[in-house]
Amino acid sequence: MKNIKFTILVSLIIITFTSCNRDGDYKDISYFTIDENNELVRPTDFRSWVYVGTPLTPNDMNNGKAAFPEFHNVYIDPMSYDHYKKTGEWRDGTILIKELVSVGSKAAVSGNGYFMGDFIGLEATIKSKEHFANEPGNWAYFSFTNPTEGTLAATGKAFKTNQCNTCHAASAGDDFVFTQYYPVLSAAKNVGIDVAPENAAQRSTIK
User: What is the CATH number of domain 26-194?
Assistant: First the structure.
């Protein structure tokens, strides 16, 4: 009898959570923690989130002095991705992760190019009216990278506004997020919660 009651309870929890996802009511679901010092606790398990792309601005194409010469593997929490699909907007509580990867080999059996090397850093961006009411768009930017010790910090302090927000405000395609460089996000915007744009057959022709 106890097992039956437990099974029913678990089923109700699953149904409730699924309904929350389907309806797009994500305001109480958070994938990040801000500690008592107003610092972001380093997120974990983010590789199971939604992967949206890997931009690269290599030194070779920027006179040897690229501002961001490494690969940036970008992940977004699944609730915010679903919310973006339904509404075309970034919810309060959105978090994006940038996992930094060095440029490794520039040659492979397939030809010359830029290939990933080692994991070298981790950064995050969050939208939170509660914690960053005075930041433009309520966005804040963090780094956990310690290049001298080679280990990630347990927490990250938000960058000053002029270090990140100013550039994002001026150039980002959609609410401080550079969606114009991520076709996964461009295709997902406002398509609806029940639509999977990756399943569409239509593709641009190869030139």
Answer: 3.50.70.20
